[in-house]
From TrEMBL:
It comes from Clostridium ljungdahlii. Residues 91-125 form a coiled coil. The keyword Coiled coil applies. Keywords: Coiled coil, Signal. It is found in: Cell envelope. Residues 1-20 form the signal peptide. This is Putative multidrug resistance protein EmrK. GO terms for cellular component: cell envelope.
Length: 350
């Protein structure tokens, strides 16, 4: 019995030293209650961290595992890679289809521009200087024909030369008449049909490009899914796969602990709950770092009781005292922590 008393006294002495800013004796409340000997409400709790399960988004063979269990990892760090050679080939095929359709669309656009220019010219008619140029060409061709015809009638020119001169004159006259009188309605209709056909061809290539780009985007997203990266800073707790193993979509690859935003979970008895204020900053001590004090912020006070703590009859009669869960986020933590570590939260004077 004497040994038990000595052990209890020693435990209380060690715990008392954790908070240098408080009086020499203090009270642990919540699920671990000792005799009240302090004017501060100090509660023992446990460090909690968020556990993240990382699953495969793509099926394939594991080509590399770049971390081991227990490794510290950073947000965005590559953890595992999955074979994506077939996907890369599909991406190249989609790109080739896009390039080919783009070149064909450019050719169709050039044809449309040329047809539009001819149509506009036909609809607007020739400019005065173009009419004058066409008349000059006709006059020259007629003069040439008259000269060769005169020589032919005297036997000084061949029939072939006369025929060529006749043809040149007819062509020049037709061009002059078109420039002077404008294009015929059927000519304009034919040019309009060429423009419409070019439009349809362009739209067809645009649809092909859009479809190929959609396929390319999909393949690229699949390729991205074959590189597994860390979603946050943390520690690798468990690896579930090995290099060379075939994995399916949704298969668990590894489990990690997010160490960026650890918090303390503690329980406060209802008779002390009025001292706990939401969003209040509180000092926190950790058994792992006994010579340092950290900052915390109260971010949650449970609405429902977690459990009842039975007190001595001379303290509260025949009633149970309820305990409420409180979450305290550590706001300036720069030390490595592990889930389950012991923490002490000082909620201030009672």
């Amino acid at each position: 019995m004497k040994k038990k008393k000595i052990s209890l006294l020693l435990a209380l002495t060690i715990t008392t030293g954790l908070f240098s800013g408080c009086s020499k004796n203090f009270v642990l409340t919540g699920d671990k209650i000792v005799k009240q000997q302090s004017d501060h409400l100090i509660v023992q709790g446990d460090i909690e961290t968020k556990e993240i399960n990382i699953n495969s988004k793509a099926a394939g063979k594991i080509t590399a595992i770049k971390v081991a269990e227990g490794d510290s990892i950073k947000n965005g760090q590559v953890l595992i890679t999955i074979d994506n050679s077939s996907l890369v080939a599909k991406e190249a095929q989609s790109k080739a289809q896009i390039d080919a359709a783009t070149e064909q669309m450019k050719a169709a656009e050039a044809a449309k521009s040329a047809a539009q220019a001819q149509l506009q010219k036909a609809q607007n008619g020739a400019r005065p200087e173009e009419i004058d140029e066409a008349k000059s060409q006709y006059d020259l061709a007629k003069s040439t024909y008259d000269r060769i015809n005169a020589l032919y009638s005297k036997g000084y020119a061949a029939k072939e030369d006369l025929d060529k001169a006749q043809t040149s004159m007819d062509v020049a006259q037709n061009q002059y008449n078109v420039a002077k009188d404008g294009a015929r309605s059927e000519d304009i209709a034919a040019l309009q049909a060429q423009v419409s056909q070019a439009d349809a061809t362009i739209q067809g290539y645009q649809a092909q490009i859009k479809q190929a780009e959609g396929g390319q985007d999909e393949v690229q997203s699949y390729i991205a899914d074959t590189t597994i990266t860390a979603p946050a800073d943390g520690i690798v707790n468990q690896l579930n796969v090995e290099v060379g193993e075939l994995v399916s979509t949704g298969m668990p690859l590894l489990v990690m602990t997010n160490t960026v935003a650890p918090w303390v979970e503690c329980n406060v008895k209802e008779t002390d709950l009025s001292k706990v204020k939401l969003d209040e900053e509180v000092p926190v001590k950790l058994s792992a770092y006994p010579n340092q004090k950290f900052k915390g912020k109260i971010v949650r006070i449970n609405k429902d009781a977690d459990f009842a703590v039975k007190r001595a009859t001379n303290d509260n009669g025949d009633f149970d005292i309820l305990s409420y869960g409180v979450k305290v986020e550590l706001t300036d933590m720069n030390k490595p922590l592990h889930a389950g570590m012991t923490a002490f939260v000082d909620f201030g004077k009672k």
